[in-house]
Protein: MbtH family NRPS accessory protein
Amino acid sequence: MAIMEDLDISTYRVVSNDEEQYSIWPADRDVPGGWRDVGVIGSKAECLSHIEKVWTDMRPASLRRLMKS
Structure:
């Protein structure tokens, strides 16, 4: 599988939903409903690296808010 990833020359964008969960999406496609573009575009590895840096708490935002109460 790593060989196929090495050959992937596609461009992706980082997207996030209302629960502050992250994903990548092909840059040449419209962002799906319920998701928003966070402004990071690059290779799959670059996008996943960004997500790794910013998505430090995997719990949905609604659960984090509930746990603070």
